[in-house]
Model the fold of this input.
Amino acid sequence: INPGEYFVWGGILVALLELEKKGVVVAGYHVKVAIWYAIVGLVVILLKGMLTERITAIMARRQGVEL
Done:
């Protein structure tokens, strides 16, 4: 998780805490959102890594490079 994501999450956190104070969302909802945010981030990073490996293998094969 990169520093830019912390900046985005900080803004989301402030908004969620304000909504919790007003009773619009249930108390502790920000924790659930944070956990899902981290899980989705890790899955996306994994998929990006797998795609990068596959593209690298294809490009290496085309250029005759052995990895």
The two ends are 28 Å apart (CA to CA). The chain is about 80% helix and 0% strand. The chain has one domain: 3-63. The mean pLDDT is 92.
